[in-house]
Amino acid sequence: MAVAAGVLLLGGCASFSPDGGLAKVDALAKERAGLSVQPIKTEQDAARVTDEVSRLLVHPLDADTAVKIALLNNRGLQASLADLGIAEADLVQAGRLRNPGFTFGRSSQGDEREFERSFLFDIMSLLTLPKRTEIERRRFEQTQLRLANEVLRLAADTRKTFFSAVAAQETVNYMRQAKEAAEAGAELTARMAKAGSASQLRHQREQAFHAEVVAQLARAQQAAASERERLTRLLGLGGGQAAFRLPARLPDLPATPLESAKLEQQAMDARLDMQMARREVEALADNLGLTRATRFVNVLELGYLNASSNEAPAKRGYEIELRLPIFDWGDARVAKAEAVYTQALHRAAEQAVNARSEVREAYIGYRAAYDLARHYRDEIVPLRKKISEENLLRYNGMLINVFELLADAREQVASVNAYFQSLRDFWLAESALQLSLNGSGAGGMQMPAGTGMPAAGSGGGH
Prior knowledge:
By secondary structure, the protein is of the alpha+beta class. It has a single domain, classed as Outer membrane efflux proteins (OEP) (Up-down Bundle), CATH 1.20.1600. It has 11 helices and 4 strands; from the N terminus they run H-H-H-H-H-E-E-H-H-H-H-E-E-H-H. The protein has helices at 2-13, 22-33, 43-56, 63-73, 75-94, 123-195, 200-235, 263-270, 272-293, 331-396, 402-438, and strands at residues 101-109, 112-122, 300-309, 315-322. The chain has a 4-stranded antiparallel beta sheet. Helix 4 packs across helix 6 (123-195) and helix 10 runs antiparallel to helix 11 (402-438). The longest helix has 73 residues, at 123-195.
């Protein structure tokens, strides 16, 4: 009875948590990015999310709203959240003992009837229960960290795709302006060539420039549609919700950039992949200790026996089942556990080196993008505007012809478009930097292919 009571007590200690471990994931996401995670488990949850997404889509999106919708509605993230349930089930299972066994036998010899009963209990399972539970607990914590990291990565991907989509939309608008200017130049030279006041070469050059701009506009429209669809997938939208609106322009540059001091140490302390690596090494160290402890004996069962006969007194006793280490001394299992542990140590060390490098690389890209965008905003675009104003005065004074005025307009459009591309690159770099500080590093930032303008002077020759 005492053994049975102990078994019931130990088995009852292993139970599921009320939130399934999601509270820690949600806390990590809020701590690092002010984000919240909500699982969709029932039809009521799905209906609530649909209503919330519809409410958020009433107004044009901004980056924060896009991230909020993605965390609510992205089904890939919801599928990953189910890993918490799987990991917690493994943890609970590790904290429970194997069910005891009961055997019953009946035999007869002449008029004699013999009954045998035995109760088997896995002693080895009891002895290793604390260690097995601790191993699974660390694995469960690893899963929580991994999912929090996935939340941060989804948020960063959504922000980057949002900025790319807005920039692509702006590029389309500016390419339309360039197309209008090219059409005007082509029509004007066509009339002048017909009247004999412009050469055929001038006419052909303007036509070629117009054709190139039309092709560039088509590429810009395709790029904008692709970026929008990428954002739609991350937001998990379909049907009428896919017709969401984007803002007309990108956010302005912040007044001052982030400073690089202590960013590396901040990343080493906060990065979730580094915490996962530490948890993995700790779990493998415990697993190595368990493997060494059970290398000789991994089966140990205690059985209670009771045999009775109609012609003899009852027999009672016990039996112990023990596997003898004759053929397998457990050295292969220990060697494998040691190799896996050593591998994890080296990978954790490599990850630390890579994390520091990723933060430095991300900051270099961030600062370069900030300086370039500021240079376009404060130097190139204002200078182009002054040149355009001066050329308009010169044209009104009949000091330059209309073709020079059109060429200057093209150059101004190209400069403004290049500024918005640099502004897009800054916000992409900022998102990559934040991810490298809090989650797993994004590595080298890959910019979307920009839609360039044809050479401004291509239509300005004589």
